[in-house]
Each structure stands twice: as C-alpha cells, then as structure tokens.
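BACKBONE GEOMETRY TOKENS:
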Amino acid sequence: KIRHARGMSQQQLANKLNTTAVSVGRYEREDQRLSLPLLRRFAKIFDVTIGEIAGETRLTPDYLSVPVFDLRAAAGAGALAQDNEPAGHLMFREQWLRRMSSDIHRLFVLEISGDSMWETLHDGDHALVDPAQTNARREGLYVIRIDDMLQVKRISMHPVTKLLTVKSDNPAYRTYDNIQPDDIAIMGRVVW
C-alpha cells in the first residue's frame, strides 16, 4: 500500500533495496518474511515508521503522497522529473486529486526555480503537474522541455490556425507566437 501510494513500481523499489522485483513481490505477498534490518530499510526509503511498514499503524486512506522534484534538477535530454530522486513528498486529498487527474499515480510536484512566471509562480513555489495532460488545446500553465531543461510556461492555442503562443507571465521575458504544436515537447499541465 505504501509503495502504491508513492507511485513507485516494484522494480524502482527493488533498485533502492539492491534486490529484484520478484523479491519485492514476495515481501508484498508475505511469501517471504521481513527481517528487522530490512524493515528499517523499507521505513527509511518510504520515510515512515517500522510500525507502518509492519501494518501496525493504519495509513490515512484519504490522502496520497505525491513526489516533489526540484525544477533545477529536472534536466537532461528526454528526462522527466520522475527520472530523478524526489526531494520530498506532499500529501493531497485523494478525492481532490481524482477531480484534477485521470491518473493520480503519475502526478508529481515541481519546485519552481527563477522568476519567469512572476507574479503567478515565485521562486520556491510548488506546482502540481499532470503528465497525462499534454495537449495544449486548453490554455494554461504547462511544463515544457526546451533543449535539455524543463520550464513552466503559459501556453494558448489559436482557435483557427491551431498555432501556439508560449509566454512567461513576467513581462521582462519574451513571448513566442505561431509555434507549431509539434515543435515543443509538453511534459504535463500544471493543475495546481
């Protein structure tokens, strides 16, 4: 349950434990007992108590833990924030998340860096991103990849030409008009 709440695959957990996904499956099905040292490792990875791992303390079912990534660390050709180690987690009401996204386990939070989206987003703010929403037909804030960096920009689509306008909310930064949708890589929509 904790692994699912973190949006982590068995293979990702296995990598952190230096074992195989098959072994993780055995632990989850209780086919293999957990030793105290292994319980400690699970607790450290998930940032919970050993009691929560052992099932002694019930996790709050109304909330989902969403990983937080630093926008500055979300770089690299083709890299999504999820490819990096999260800087932490934020808790959101699961019912609210389900209204925001059709795939709540893929959601992630970016810590904003810089002032290009000032007054909307400030350096250090957090933005909840839905990577399932990559079509810019609906105007809003999107995470886009430019070269090897992720950036948050406001994108709108012209209703007739279907060309995009990509702009920063800070007027000190340039606006780009008449962009072909295929010319930018939209990584997800900012939903909060």
